[in-house]
From TrEMBL:
This is ATP-binding cassette, subfamily B, MsbA. It holds the Pfam family ABC_tran. The keyword ATP-binding applies. One of its GO terms (cellular component) is plasma membrane. Residues 22-336 form the ABC transmembrane type-1 domain. The chain crosses the membrane at residues 20-43, 89-114, 170-188, 194-214, 282-300. Its main location: membrane. It comes from the Bacteria. Keywords: ATP-binding, Membrane, Nucleotide-binding, Transmembrane, Transmembrane helix. It is found in: Cell membrane. One of its GO terms (molecular function) is ATP hydrolysis activity. InterPro entries: AAA+_ATPase (IPR003593), ABC1_TM_dom (IPR011527), ABC1_TM_sf (IPR036640), ABC_transporter-like_ATP-bd (IPR003439), ABC_transporter-like_CS (IPR017871), P-loop_NTPase (IPR027417), Type_1_exporter (IPR039421). It is a multi-pass membrane protein.
Amino acid sequence: MEYFKKILRFAKPYSTYGYLNIFFNVLYALFSALSFAALIPMLDVLFDKSRKVYEAPVYTGIGDLKTFVQDYLNYQVTGYSGDDEMKGLVLVIGLVLFLFLLKNLFNYLAMYYITFLRNGVLKDVRNAMYRKIVDLPVSFYSEKRKGDVIARITSDVLEIQHSFLSILELIVREPLTILFTIIVMFFISVKLTIFVFIFIPLAGMIISAIGKSLKKKSDRVQKEQGNFLSIVEETLGGLRVIKAFNAEDRFYQMFKASTTRFFRFSNTLLNRQNLASPTGEFLGILVIGVLLWFGGKMVLVDQTLDASSFIAYMGLAYNILTPAKSISKASYGVKKGNAAAERVLEILETENPIRDQPAAIRKESFEHGLNLENVSFKYEDEYVLKDFSLEVPKGSMVALVGQSGSGKSTIANLLTRFYDVNEGSIRIDGTDIRSIEKISLRHLMGLVTQDSILFNDTVRNNIGLGKENATEEEIIEAAKIANAHEFITSLPKGYDTNIGDSGNKLSGGQKQRLSIARAVLKNPPIMILDEATSALDTESERLVQDALEKMMQNRTSVVIAHRLSTIQNAHKIIVMQKGKIAEQGTHNELLAKNGVYKNLVEMQSLRG
């Protein structure tokens, strides 16, 4: 229940619907009991057991309530029907129908209002989860599988929605139905009702014993669902590689093993859950059977209870069975939902290590330069950067080169604050980036990566991601600077062409030029290029490199380069080895040193 208390905060905006649901559930429970009690006068008239009462009875106190109610009903029937018994029968049948009509009307109204609350909570929990998913740092998703996160925002949230309804029934509707029914049962026969109370706790203990392990079993099912969704997500993302390496069967076996575990866990969970209904029903019928024997003895032998009251009493006793079964089902739903709520809240309550400081400043201009001062950083145990220092003056182009694993891309991740440094600091115009609002820091920077990350949308919207409410002219101008306008206009619908999932309808060079156009439109003073041309063929590289040079004019640029031919004009080239600076200088200065940089240039020349 502790997790549901936390989920309940999402119900606060919809509290009016909750109160209306409770109100109509109270009325439903009351009329549910009264509708069965109204069977007594009907049966009395039907079996000619009703007494003729010609004078209105007088209420003398709570002890005489039962007799007063019976006499009052008989008085009304007598007054309406006179000597015509059929008139009296029509009256009491009409009373029963009216009470059942009200009962079902209040049932509908209770369900009507709970719908808004349930779906509102579902919407708000999903919105909060999505907000948290995009807010959490990149590092979070190197530990969590994407499929598991997808399972939490879909099936787990849906499970909470169903369980949420169950809890409201558990707290309000069904207990009140039982309470009002028992009050009426006491009213009919105290002795018989006390007898019933001996058996109900016994049935409850047996049903409770069945459900104890449900939360654990439900948790296993939901985790396994996250696992096979991860396999699906990875399969779709890497389908070309899977086919190229004939690994279809291997992935199928992985997926099959996961769904087999899901099948086994689900069977165990559902069979345990399904046991509740037949067990509850049998125990209920057992209670009814014992009641028939004990009550029948009161009617036939002791004659302390009349037959019509006993029949209505049996109806009331059966009226307890349905809500009792619902409570047992709801308690299972709560256990399942608790496991789902735990998984959802694990995401919602995850602390974001990269967050704005309370007094974070908004920085809207870039005046002097970037500085990395004695920066040390590690992803896990080993340092990727150690005591790394670098100065990037405004308007300059600084290139980072070196072998894979030397820490080049890590610097891009630290500058954009996808990760925070472990030691040292990164400063913009002398201000530590940790004391700048993340949103304003990233407004100052544009990023073009090796992998062109595009979205399943139109060309216009992919470029327009760089600037909200960008005009048509601004988008076209950005595309021209990125050497993309020509190929865009040749597409079937031009700028309104949908480029497919991850932009897969375009070539590598076209995708990269769209990424550059997006960065150009944003027009940031600092540009970070992370191996932006390394995955391209020679012709595409020429077009992209030309676009990059146009984009970097009058901007401060940090270029992480794989192909050294693209950074010969850099103001400063930093050669990195194992997280440290091995050499630095201009292209000509480094060649003259006859060191690491010259070896890299010669190796690439041989490959070319």
